[in-house]
Design a protein that fits this description.
By secondary structure, the protein is an alpha+beta fold. The chain has one domain. About 30% of the residues lie in helices and about 10% in strands. It contains 12 helices and 6 strands. A 4-stranded antiparallel sheet has the order 1-2-6-3, sandwiched between helices. A hairpin with a 5-residue loop joins strand 4 and strand 5. The chain is globular and about 60 Å long. It starts with a helix and ends with a helix. The structure holds iron/sulfur cluster (2 copies). The site of one iron/sulfur cluster has 11 residues, from helix 9 and helix 10. One iron/sulfur cluster (SF4) binds next to helix 9 and helix 10.
């Protein structure tokens, strides 16, 4: 089944697609999250401590889940010094989820034929306690970078990851092909460290760690008390930060989905001094709206 699903995913514009058995993530992952929270590295993102059971076990999110499908969605690079590249289009949560729903509809018959009961699934993209990057690695789509991104050898780092958690038995999806795909992946960054040197705030002080309280992405998007535009902690940025992503040699120059770039002509660095300069029309369906609303 996997080759058919992969070509269906490619036809819909996904850069890559994989599957993994839906099961608890295990003690190693649990310990990693536990120490991240215990050290307070999540700063004000208290939601990360909530729903831990679901975060660590997708079968708690979707009863009877047996398989997780992972989809890699590319977005384009924008040479902005103020706004992260991922925010130049429509709200990615909806865009990505809609396309995955379409994929599931297109493949409904084949997927349901593999089930002993009607096909059931839920689709997520940064919209529920699901560790998308961890699952993407488990699905054989890439490896963990020192900057905490999932690095896709196919699509690089400018990607969103969406998932569908479903009751299709994992054995029905060709495991042999998935295993060989996984075995051919690089497993780590080697001695690079470029992202650590590129981080302007020192938030990325060591590989695979990140102090959210110092991270410009956190300070401009998530923090309850956001520093004002021009605060030296933001290094000139207004929404998000791409420095640890931009530094990576694994970036790929592939074209992202057009919906995820459709505001590129309207969001010019020279015309935006603060987020208030962005029009209501753009904010109506933009990832940036999150930072503006929570101000
Ligand atoms: S997003 Fe920016 S501030 Fe945050 S860790 Fe990466 S480079 Fe550092
Ligand atoms: S910049 Fe280097 S160390 Fe950082 S994620 Fe990329 S390859 Fe890994």
């Amino acid at each position: 089944m996997y080759p058919d699903l992969l070509s269906g995913a490619h036809a819909l514009g996904f850069a890559d697609f994989g599957a993994a058995k839906a099961e608890p993530l295990g003690p190693q992952c649990s310990a990693r999250i536990g120490s991240y929270l215990a050290e307070g590295r999540n700063a004000g993102m208290t939601y990360m401590a909530g729903n831990l059971e679901k975060r660590l076990d997708p079968t708690a999110l979707v009863p009877g889940a047996q398989t997780i499908f992972c989809f890699v969605v590319p977005y384009s690079r924008h040479a902005s010094t103020k706004i992260a590249s991922y925010a130049f289009g429509l709200d990615y949560h909806r865009v990505v989820k809609d396309r995955i729903h379409l994929f599931m509809q297109q493949n409904h018959e084949m997927l349901e034929a593999a089930c002993t009961e009607p096909l059931r699934y839920r689709v997520f993209c940064d919209s529920a306690p699901v560790l998308e990057r961890e699952w993407a690695v488990r699905c054989g789509l890439g490896f963990w970078g020192c900057n905490n991104f999932m690095i896709s050898p196919v699509a690089g780092l400018r990607t969103f990851i969406g998932v569908a958690v479903c009751n299709v038995p994992f054995e029905a999806v060709d495991c042999g092909q998935l295993r060989s795909k996984k075995a051919s992946l690089p497993t780590d960054c080697g001695r690079c460290g470029a992202c650590l040197r590129a981080c302007p705030s020192g938030a990325l002080e060591a590989p695979f760690t990140m102090d959210a309280g110092r991270c410009i992405s956190y300070l401009t998007i998530e923090a309850d008390e956001k520093p004002a535009a021009g605060d030296c902690r933001l290094h000139g940025r207004l929404f998000g930060c791409d420095s640890c992503l931009e530094a990576c040699r694994w970036n790929r120059d592939i074209e992202g989905w057009s919906e995820l770039s459709c505001h590129s002509e309207s969001l010019k660095d020279e015309e935006i001094a603060t987020l208030s300069d962005i029009s209501e029309e753009i904010l109506a369906d933009s990832p940036v709206a999150r930072a503006v609303k929570s101000k």
